[in-house]
């Protein structure tokens, strides 16, 4: 009965909409599948089943056809409930006829538990099993149980799992590189007392990928406002100038963005155009 | 029975004498094999007779019929053909009810479980769901909770012996396994006998359970 209450309570709570109804239909389905185990007799079983069916019917009234079209799952669950209910009914009907079955399984179980030996008997038409006909009459060879060969199994190799990627460390590595590039630029700038040619700085005549990496690192420095890349008035070429100013002081309105694109062909063209023989920026890799 | 020759009737007498050894062997084989209670396949009998007495397959039917006569006359047994998917199978039962002594080779505990299961199904008047059966046997103190090896006794051993039928009913989520009486139980266990046991246990008359009483009487009349 407590189950009964919780169910009707949950249906009274303000769970509206198709989702709420589906949830309740699921509950009903759950309930109906256990009703046979929980109910102590057929009658109670039928009562509970009919209550669930009634509940499902009411639930159906709450929604309208439009909603049901949009949420076919609801109708599906509804039909499932009905199906389960009809299954229960069929089984109940099988067990019931005009007369009431007064068999009490708990009573029988208790009797068996207390008088187990009463329930040990041969069946009237069962032939007594012939264990030894004519003394030691070898029964027809039972198939010898094949002894299973113990297979020496190799100990399973230690499970390989991908190295835990420590994102933090990785990013630190990246930022370390950026820092090194920054230090290099600042140092070189101090030594020469003039802006660095952008292309000379980033291009590595021996390695395209290294050049790309350099461009990448420099772009971070620009973004962080540590350096600026400006076009030279004289040649119209980009030059790098370190910014000593703290980022707050940078006037954001003045900021312009540019896109660097590079491919193999362009890289080679630039190297020959600027006559770059060896990389200017040599960063020691740890 | 695939006798193609017309001279069959004239050959009957000498055939039998020729087959006498094979018939005896067949009787032995059936009695011994019955010990396991697992139905005897016709193909197994054929194979056995082929190897021991070189009985041609075409004669095996005749041998089995004669063996059955001996089983009946000497032992009071009869072969019953049972349903199976894989060829013809037989079980052996008594021709008439009798009170035998409990067999020394049958495990007493197993027998109690079997009796309880059959009784529960019969008294329920309907197939019993798997879970309900476990609960009942647990309550009867015969099977521990979640004793999966013990459950196998019902789902496998008794099912193979055809005391029980263990089948799936329904589809999808609603599917459940149910226990019913197997063919051997129907052959060996008269329902009014079980009802008599119930009456004895609870100090009632069999007609106390009128539904079951009716069913038992119907069975006897058939």
Features:
heterodimer; A: 286 residues; mainly alpha; Arc Repressor Mutant, subunit A; 10 helices; B: 222 residues
Q: How is the topology of this model organized?
A:
The complex is a heterodimer of chains A (286) and B (222).
Chain A: H1 2-12, H2 17-38, H3 42-62, H4 65-70, H5 72-95, H6 105-114, H7 167-192, E1 196-197, H8 198-202, H9 208-223, E2 227-231, E3 238-242, H10 264-274
Antiparallel strand pairs in A: 1-3, 2-3
Helix pairs in contact in A: 2-3, 2-5, 3-5, 7-9
Chain B: H1 8-34, E1 40-41, H2 42-53, H3 57-75, E2 77-82, E3 89-94, H4 108-124, E4 128-129, H5 130-139, H6 148-160, E5 164-169, E6 176-181, H7 183-188, H8 191-202, H9 210-221
Antiparallel strand pairs in B: 1-3, 2-3, 4-6, 5-6
Question: In summary, what is this structure?
Answer:
The complex is a heterodimer of chains A (286) and B (222). Chain A has 286 residues and is mostly helical.
The interface involving the most residues is between: A-B, 46 and 66 residues
Shape of chain B: globular
* Oligomerization state: heterodimer
Strand content of chain A: under 5%
Strand content of chain B: 5-15%
With helices defined by DSSP (H or I, 4 residues minimum), what is the helix count of chain A? 10
| Average pLDDT over all residues of chain B | 86
Helical content band of chain B: 55-70%
Q: Which architecture of the largest domain in chain B per CATH? A: Orthogonal Bundle
Describe this structure in words.
Chain A is mainly alpha-helical. Among the domains of chain A are: 2-95, no CATH class; 173-274, Orthogonal Bundle (Arc Repressor Mutant, subunit A), CATH 1.10.10. Helices cover 53% and strands 4% of the residues of chain A. Chain A contains ten helices and three strands, in the order H-H-H-H-H-H-H-E-H-H-E-E-H. In chain A, strands 1-3-2 form a three-stranded antiparallel β-sheet. In chain A, strand 2 and strand 3 form a beta hairpin. The two termini of chain A are 74 Å apart. In chain B, a hairpin with a 6-residue loop joins strand 5 (164-169) and strand 6 (176-181). With 222 residues, chain B is of the alpha+beta class. Chain B has nine helices and six strands, in the order H-E-H-H-E-E-H-E-H-H-E-E-H-H-H. Chain B has two domains: 12-94, Arc Repressor Mutant, subunit A; 108-189, Arc Repressor Mutant, subunit A (Orthogonal Bundle), CATH 1.10.10. Classes of the chains: A mainly alpha (286), B alpha+beta (222). The interface between A and B is large, with 46 and 66 residues.
